[in-house]
């Protein structure tokens, strides 16, 4: 089940098979991002600390649920960003985050396209995300991917 929930996107921006070490490192990084986005700036030492605190509950949440999907973007051992999707019936809510030092390099678009493909592959009829009013680049990226704005909510039908 875990291998269906976590995909590692490599430097070539294609989905790659991942080793247990890469999976563990990716889960460590994603856990650090989810819980401490503002504090996380790469480096295995901080990721290891986050791993010790957050990994057990994160792993159990992911492994017991088919309705949660994660994509982890990486470039070497650096975490580029992540996309997560929670499916609720025939719709899915997602978020895409790209670390500031990797923005404007195509990683966000790749993560967005991959999470949309995962959502559609799970049979969702619509997917959505919420975008803060000041996030103009996020809104325009979603519009280019076929999403329509409804207030702060951006939705795309299957």
Give a short synopsis of this structure.
Helices cover 41% and strands 29% of the residues. It has five helices and eight strands, in the order αββααβββαβαββ.
Structural overview:
With 158 residues, the chain is α+β, with helices and mostly antiparallel strands. It has a single domain, classed as Aminopeptidase, CATH 3.40.630.30. It contains 5 helices and 8 strands; from the N terminus they run H-E-E-H-H-E-E-E-H-E-H-E-E. The chain has helices spanning 2-5, 20-36, 44-63, 107-121, 136-144, and strands at 6-9, 15-16, 68-75, 78-88, 91-98, 126-130, 148-150, 153-157. An 8-stranded mixed sheet has the order 2-1-3-4-5-6-8-7, sandwiched between helices. Strand 1 (6-9) and strand 2 (15-16) form a beta hairpin. Helix 2 packs across helix 3 (44-63). The protein is globular and about 35 Å long. Residues 28-158 form the N-acetyltransferase domain.
CATH class: Alpha Beta
Portion in strands = 25-35%
- Output the structural class: alpha+beta
Give me the CATH architecture, please. 3-Layer(aba) Sandwich
CATH topology: Aminopeptidase
N- to C-terminal distance: 25 Å
Specify the biggest β-sheet.
8 strands, mixed
Number of strand segments:
8
CATH superfamily: Gcn5-related N-acetyltransferase (GNAT)
Helix content: 40-55%
Could you spell the SSE succession in H and E letters?
HEEHHEEEHEHEE
Question: What is the count of helical runs?
Answer: 5
Read across the widest sheet, the strand sequence of neighbours is 2-1-3-4-5-6-8-7
* Residue-averaged pLDDT: 69
- State the domain count: 1
Rg of Cα set: 15 Å
The coarse overall form would be globular
Protein name: Acetyltransferase (GNAT) family protein
GO molecular function, one term: acyltransferase activity, transferring groups other than amino-acyl groups
Organism: Acidithrix ferrooxidans
InterPro entries: Acyl_CoA_acyltransferase, GNAT_dom
